[in-house]
Amino acid sequence: MMRNIRVVFAVLSLSVVLVAGVADELQAQEKRQGWIKRLRYRRELRRELQGEIQLSGAFALYPMAVKWAEEFRKIHPKVRIDISAGGAGKGITDALAKVVDLGMVSRDIYPQELYRRLRALEIGCQGQSVLDLGTGTGVLPRNLAPYGARFVGIDLSAEQIRQAELLSRSSGGNIRYLTGSAEEISFPDTVFDAVTACQCFFYFDHTRLAPKLFRILKPEGKLAIIYMAWLPFEDKIAGASEQLVLRYHPDWTGGGEIRHPIEVDSCYKRFFTCENECVFDVSVPFTRESWAGRIRACRGIGASLSPEQVLRDIAPEQFSILHYCAVTVLKKRSFVHFSSEP
What we know:
The protein has 342 residues and is α/β, with parallel strands linked by helices. It has helices at 2-48, 62-75, 90-96, 112-120, 139-144, 158-167, 206-216, 236-248, 288-296, 307-311, and strands at residues 51-57, 79-85, 102-104, 129-133, 150-155, 174-179, 192-198, 217-230, 272-287, 318-332. The protein is built from ten helices and ten strands.
């Protein structure tokens, strides 16, 4: 009896070993087949993936896109990648127009300290109705609207407005965008609590604009003029970058900034009083690639400087650039006599 039991146990043990061995072998075969399938797939990709990919967008992302293209083509050498940079708004505009496959969009450029200061000056506060002139891609409205202000952004560029609308979908604010010039704005009288103009105020026809802003602002309404620039005489990287730009573009006139209040055209004195002027420093973080893009985005320079020329011996991988912000707030006068319609 005991002998029979031993035989049965031996048979069962052998069966378990055989089953386990078969299972291990099957699992090993599945792994081998998986690796073979993946290898074949990769080979097929290398052999079959070909054509062209077109990208466009912000200068700040151009160096990173070039690096990505280089790595991608190591895997897919038959794919041609065409990259173009044209400043803020180009990426989404070209993608929406279906002229490129991918659009590159860079981050907002203004630090949170600027928005905090504006709110402290009662610009973009809860319940206000605000008009943003030269809104571009809607940077100012998108950052202030979540605090409860209702914004209307206006810009000459229909392409910029299209990008602003797309970027504002997730901002959580009440923003409406219009295409048109600041001088041709047509709103009812006394509808806005504030008007903002960031980095664009100097390009307007002030003799036409000033009386229009007076009309559309509510009593005691405010006009906030905002400007930001880096400080090349105090920041070594900014200074070295400007010297590099001047080496290739000696006629460039966009550098040499120092701190100063905003100069307001004298025609505004008839319609407004100066309520507040402030100038303050901010430190703006950059990577080497994003700073290269920022330099190449300077007016009049464009893409004529290669990333290598911009990056060489100027900056570490990550750093901050010293900027100054200037904000001037004008308050609407209580009464102005119009001898004729503006």
